[in-house]
Amino acid sequence: MGAMTLSVMAAQAQDYKAVLLKTFTAFDTTMVPDTKVEQSNKLSLIAKKWDGEWITHYYAALSKTMISYTEKSAEKRDAYLDEAEKEKEAAVSILKKENDETYVLAAMIANARMVIDGANRWMKYGKIFSDNLESAKGLNPDNPRMYYLQGTSKFYTPKAFGGGKKAAQPYFEKAQGLFAKEKGDDITKPYWGKMVNEYYLGQCKIED
Hints:
It is a single chain. The chain is globular. The longest helix has 27 residues, at about 5-30. Helix 1 (about 5-30) packs antiparallel against helix 2 (about 35-50), helix 4 packs antiparallel against helix 5 and helix 5 (about 100-115) runs antiparallel to helix 6. It has 9 helices and no strands. It is about 75% helix and about 0% strand. It has helices at about 5-30, 35-50, 55-70, 75-95, 100-115, 120-140, 145-155, 165-180, 195-205. It is mostly helical.
């Protein structure tokens, strides 16, 4: 492979990283639902354009999953998660294996499915959620997103079933310590979740 080809490939890689960073940051930092959807659609287009990069599919899947939590209609929420599953599968097939981030993403998708209809779905998706987090932990016990997800799960579980703020707080604290160690300077190594984890940790410290 000639030096010319290599430099072109390197430039293209930088190109997608810059676009991905800009778009995901815009998605992650807006509070406006329509803007979130717009940026998520852009992430899907980025995944189409740079189809051979697992990380482009990862962020497309992540954005769809996040949007599903805020959508009102159960049907639309499931539709977003169907899209998220497809993008996640694309990421895994490019990697040719799961990594800790794809397991965490799978757990998040399962959790999002569960909250649409908790009473009827908790048995099926609760297990998928736990199993994927266990698999992620096996690969990387220092992934903060894993503990953040466990924390939010506990946070929204009624106290009678072992949940609530006090039960959730240690998970958010564990995540906080691990988030602090992440450099957060490379979009291809996911580092999302720090701000929202801080928010929940703050909520846990407020007495009911």
